[in-house]
Write a sequence for this structure.
């Protein structure tokens, strides 16, 4: 194994970079920023779902 993770359109990302981002996310989840991050994530997910449902017209 070469220590790289394939990312479509972006070449390769070093494994340590992926681990660092994951650890940063876990650390932030235990700080005062957690509620704001969660709220922003939920708002973004709801927005994407709404756009997909409007564009789909699956009814």
């Amino acid at each position: 194994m070469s220590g790289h993770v394939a990312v479509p359109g972006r070449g390769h990302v070093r494994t340590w970079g992926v681990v660092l981002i994951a650890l940063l996310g876990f650390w932030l989840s235990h700080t005062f920023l957690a509620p704001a991050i969660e709220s922003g994530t939920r708002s973004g997910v709801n927005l994407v779902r709404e756009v997909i449902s409007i564009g789909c017209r699956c009814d």
